[in-house]
Design brief:
Layout lengths: L9 H13 L4 E5 L6 H13 L16 H7 L2 H8 L7 H8 L5 E4 L10 H11 L9 E5 L7 H12 L5 E7 L7 H4 L3 E4 L5 H10 L4 H10 L4 H8 L6 H9 L6 H8 L6 H24 L7 H13 L2 H19 L4 H16 L3
Helix pairs in contact: 1-2, 3-4, 6-7, 9-10, 12-15, 13-17, 14-15, 14-16, 16-17
Length: 355
């Protein structure tokens, strides 16, 4: 099995592959938190269906280690070195990895855009209507589906209502609620769970991260492999800034809440990550307060967490966690991120003051 980096979802992949081989649906909705491997599973399923050498679970491409993918992403300086790596994949897998397979469409938000454009959806629909040129069927991966606006979803709905008999669509979303009920009802729902600390730790160790650091990062990653891999590169979450704001929670008024909402909440994705981080930090404080559990953060951050355990009462912690969870759910449902951030910080301030 070439999916060496598929941690935690191999059973989902194998179950879907068996279904595709017997009685496939025309469209699947892969739903779950960001960065947990939904796109990797969809890509693996596509490779399994179009591989010309050994289709099925032992397709010849290795998505997470593909030399062709690395070549496409490499800088000009690194291309010569990367190109020297032999790619032993079949022509079908190479074309999928390069994004040029005539029967495979991969749609996602363009760089710098906040949503998938309706023009992208219409182009996908038009191409799905054509007969397969090389593979047994036409396949499409529609990522970031939670960013589809209503007109784009309605355009997709027409195809879901009358699907081509030779096409399968994999729709990937981090929020089912962002999709219209009529769209969701025509998709075969497959829910993905967040990864466990052990699974993320295993992934990080496989990437050469020292075991102790891998364990700490895995706990801070909050179930997301993508977040853990980002932290390897030095872009760790704004834990200290959030802790500093919580230390002064009793002084948060409307103007302070507005100022805090300008930080780490500029985009919907950033806001969702920050709300989740706040909830996780408050949860760690609650666990420490109740049962003396250790912290996942670094030793310097753990000192602040310990101080906050003395500052926040149990009721204040519970109210603050509830506010963070509600804010996260609202943003996932396409609510205004900065407005939700203002409301969260006001709620935290009021809870800290026992109001």
């Amino acid at each position: 099995m070439p999916l060496n980096a598929l941690f935690g979802h191999r059973d989902v992949y194998e179950r879907l592959l068996a279904e595709l081989a017997s009685r496939p649906s025309h469209a699947y909705l892969l739903s779950g938190p960001r960065g947990i491997g939904k796109s990797l599973v969809a890509s693996a399923l596509v490779h399994s269906l179009v591989c010309e050498r050994s289709p099925g679970a032992r397709f010849c491409c290795t998505p997470e280690r593909c030399a062709t993918r690395a070549l496409a992403a490499a800088s000009e300086r690194a291309r010569a070195k990367t190109a020297s790596e032999a790619c032993e994949c079949c022509p079908g897998c190479v074309q999928v990895a390069s994004g040029v397979h005539p029967d495979v469409l991969q749609i996602r938000r363009a760089e710098g855009r906040s949503d998938v454009l309706i023009e992208q959806v219409r182009d996908m629909i038009a191409q799905l209507g054509l007969k397969p040129a090389r593979a047994p069927m036409r396949l499409a991966i529609l990522d970031d589906a939670e960013t589809l606006n209503v007109p784009a979803q309605n355009a997709l709905l027409k195809t879901l209502e009358e699907p081509p008999g030779h096409a399968i669509i994999f729709v990937i979303t981090a929020s089912e609620r962002a999709l219209l009920d009529t769209v969701r009802s025509r998709l075969r729902l497959v829910r993905f769970r967040a990864l466990t600390v052990e699974e993320i730790e295993q992934l990080l160790v496989s990437r050469g991260v020292e075991a102790t650091r891998a364990h700490a990062l895995a706990r801070l990653a909050r179930g997301s492999a993508a977040r853990a891999l980002t932290m390897i590169e030095g872009e760790e979450p704004p834990t200290r800034a959030i802790l500093n704001a919580l230390r002064h929670a009793r002084a948060i008024d409307f103007s302070r809440a507005q100022a805090l909402a300008q930080e780490f909440f500029s985009s919907r994705e950033q806001a969702a990550d920050t709300f989740e981080l706040i909830a996780r930090l408050l949860e760690e404080i609650l666990c420490y307060k109740l049962c003396g559990a250790g912290f996942a953060a670094s030793s310097s951050d753990a000192v602040q967490l310990g101080e906050l355990a003395e500052v926040f009462g149990l009721d204040a912690l519970l109210k603050s966690i509830e506010a963070a969870v509600k804010a996260h759910a609202a943003v996932e449902g396409m609510a205004n991120s900065r407005l939700q951030a203002e409301q969260l910080w006001m709620a935290v301030g009021q809870a800290a003051r026992n109001e």
